[in-house]
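FAQ
Q: What does a multi-component entry look like?
A: The components come first, one per line:
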Amino acid sequence: MITPYTALLESLSRQRGVRASLIVSEGDGLVVDANLRFGQDGDPVAALAASLYRKARLSARAARLGAVGFLQLDAERGRICAVGGRNDLVIVVVAESTANVGLIRVELLKALESLE
Amino acid sequence: MADEIRRWSDELAREPASLVFLQLSEALRRQGQLEIALKIALRGLERHPRHAEAHDLVARIAVDRRDFERACDEWETVLRIAPDHVGAMKGLGYVCFQQGRFEEAERYLTGAAAGGGGSAVHAALQTVRRSSTGAVMPGHDAIPAVDPPWLFADLLVDEGQTALLLDVNGFVMAGVYQDHDGNDLAQEIGAQLSGISDEVLRATKRLDIGEWRSIVFETHAAVVAMAPGADESLVVVAASRATPLGLLRRLLDRCAERAGLWLARQGSR
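Then the predicted structure of the entire assembly, as tokens:
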């Protein structure tokens, strides 16, 4: 199914080391659209990314630090990167731990611009 | 940054007497390339032996290399050239504190505070004053005998840096977070981050990506990094937006190490 987000997600998933890309709703943690590999489950990623982003946003507000931009979770065998904007949507990428974060960050910010 | 480093390198190659070595060496230091940063700074010093900023730069590189003796020598030279140099007083205060020389640390930090050293210097000064009434720490990596709010004060040497240690429920165990008006926001931040470790732990397990190591997020005003600590605690560090991520990670590692030692000491009591 082609959606307004298909091209954006395909472009993110083409980055080296990217396993999945999703657009999630920060408010309820549900998947809005996703580009996943066969057999992958996007729900836990969406729930985690939305929750992390919300906590980051609320703690940044408590610390008077302004709006949150890029967020990155590093784990032993993978990483999750996310950016959110003025609306409720968060763009999320799941990548290998060896993926180039700098490049993913640039692509995510570019994707966010096109989303807004 | 890579472009700027290339530009400064080219400029220095064209004009070896240029002061651009200061920017080049500082950029390399921030990237953690300490040996080459030192080499460039020393070469610059050969041409500008009376340049206070060059000596200050060598001192800061020396601190990053844990060469405190060299750092002291350089900062003392800075003060001979420029007696009001705030950076050198801050630096000497930091090294003296690390070495347990609290009286000297207080003297230098008082000077830095009078020279407009900012809130970080005032926090460090409080730490030193509290430490001087308690036990003296024996080595560079030991835990200063300070009240929990000041546990990280000596590690936070740049303006705008702050660190907190939160327990599993988001309660503040150590560290302090003050806004520009001096209001302590630590509890509020802790409350918003409560449960994050547990949640991430469960999710990373389900996603099969191993144990989580850190979360970093950028805001308009700062970069915030956090890492899991002992007993499901959370170490949170914030620094100005200009701070390179590599430097922030080093700061996070140092604070996490300090928090671990402190928690272990609390547990052994």
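Q: Is there any commentary attached?
A: Sometimes. For this entry: The longest helix of chain B spans residues 245-268.
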